[in-house]
Write a sequence for this structure.
């Protein structure tokens, strides 16, 4: 019997005592710990060799960079500024000092200091865990649970590139001409700048990052805000590279954009028909309903997203 | 080539930018983040299957309990009160839902809520990482770097029991009569209560927890405070069980007490000859010097501690 991430989170939640001090725990991209007029936000994410990365596909610098990026993306999703990382790694004997040096340089790409950590040995796989901490003004925090019926749904950039990059690596395809897709997979960038800019806009009601694909991740906002959504597949921002790639290999770019994940763009909802002073793309709308998503202009008329799980 | 924990910490330190906001990072049991009159302290520790625990030796409840305990021990060492944990686990397919439920119950033993986490799958071993966060009044924080020449050195309880428990498990010895030793290894308790009590005493100058053994860990205080020490081996608090056990198998209890680690007692220094209102045992003294330890009444006249490494 295997176990889904959602089952596990439910298990943890069921055993929780009540929090004190208005702390908000499991449920958003990061926990929220109020500290006066500001809050600290804290998140943790693991990357496991041969599950999240392969040593033959990525350099130690890239693995370090991505380990930081996926955590900082959660900080960005809260509209917060990161100020520290905690690094735990379990290192098999095959990994040498030079690898670690490059890996640490990768983590430091984003200029956020490592404040602590733990290093242990591992019998087989390399295991990386990073905990990131940031801060944000209390009235700028964007939660998943505060979307409003009638909101427009936006994303901050192209979707599906990372998934196509992974597809190229997994199927050992020729990357010539599609280097930007592989790059999107190996070197994702957390949307820290636009995250803090969106956080300051009152018309932005909810926000999260897209790590597992738009079609799956939107449900976190729907479930927690008690809403349904329409997503217009014609509006999804798809790069020219992804279109060319999908054309060549007879694949569907919409599926990559909806389902592939790891683009680490932000997904947010904002007051209807506001003209946002930022480069974002409207992809749908929210309405009162039981947590369903209607896909307009979908790849096939009966398209249904059947879910994503790490296991 | 393999890599020691200390090399790695140095590597991280060398690549650091300067911290802002008086944050103190790597070097103590936990990072210190000032928040007005108080500080948050944050620490992270991993437990890896077949390195730190074996599934056949410990129940899932015990593994969860110990995962929390080793982190909370670092919080105790700062004199802080824990208020949250972040849990990352990478779970192989052989682990089922019931295992996880028991594991979570174990983590929750100490009443500290899980505020967030990440779950991923793993190809082979089970990986656990916990990040713990606590708070403490700024003027109660006990650092490793603030010991003073002339201080007495204390520990908060018996040493060596956990190491003997591990020895019993590793060598498949009959545990009858020595259950308390095995118990000390599988179910260590973080010294949270006495940690906060010591934090309030002005005469206590430095503090840390003993995870890798007194003889090794004392060097963190010596190096950071610029001192040397004498440790009187006759004064080490050794349980009756450990003495009986060592008698039976012709082992040296002093070596267990000095070198074995994982007792998670607190090690601290306090003003000379103060009568502390707490149940602690004086084991030595600090003096100005180049970071050396002189062992009085040591197991052998030429006894030298040759170091401990995870790798």
């Amino acid at each position: 019997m295997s176990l889904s991430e959602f089952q596990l989170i439910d298990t943890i939640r069921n055993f929780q005592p009540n929090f004190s001090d208005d702390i908000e725990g499991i449920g958003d991209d990061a926990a929220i710990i109020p500290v006066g007029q500001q809050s600290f936000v804290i998140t943790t994410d693991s990357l496991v060799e041969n599950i999240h990365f392969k040593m033959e596909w990525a350099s130690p610098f890239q693995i370090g960079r991505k380990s930081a990026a996926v955590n900082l993306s959660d900080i960005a999703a809260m509209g917060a500024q990161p100020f520290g990382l905690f690094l735990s790694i379990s290192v098999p004997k095959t990994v040498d000092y030079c690898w670690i040096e490059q890996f640490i340089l990768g983590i430091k790409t984003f200029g956020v200091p490592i404040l602590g950590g733990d290093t242990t040995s591992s019998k087989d796989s390399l295991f990386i865990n990073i905990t990131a901490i940031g801060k944000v003004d209390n009235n700028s925090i964007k939660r998943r649970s505060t979307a409003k019926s009638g909101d427009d749904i936006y994303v901050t950039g192209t979707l599906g590139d990372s998934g196509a990059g992974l597809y190229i690596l997994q199927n050992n395809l020729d990357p010539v001409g599609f280097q930007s897709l592989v790059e999107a997979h190996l070197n994702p960038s957390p949307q820290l700048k636009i995250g803090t800019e969106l956080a300051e806009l009152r018309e932005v009601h909810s926000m999260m990052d897209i790590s597992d694909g738009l079609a799956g991740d939107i449900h976190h906002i729907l479930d927690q805000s008690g809403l349904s959504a329409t997503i217009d597949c014609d509006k999804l921002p798809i790069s020219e590279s992804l279109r060319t790639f999908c054309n060549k290999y007879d694949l569907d770019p919409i599926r990559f954009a909806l389902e592939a994940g790891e683009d680490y763009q932000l997904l947010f909802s904002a007051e209807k028909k506001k003209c946002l002073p930022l480069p974002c793309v409207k992809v749908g709308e929210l309405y009162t309903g039981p947590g369903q998503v209607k896909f307009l202009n979908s790849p096939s008329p009966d398209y249904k997203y059947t879910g994503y799980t790490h296991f």
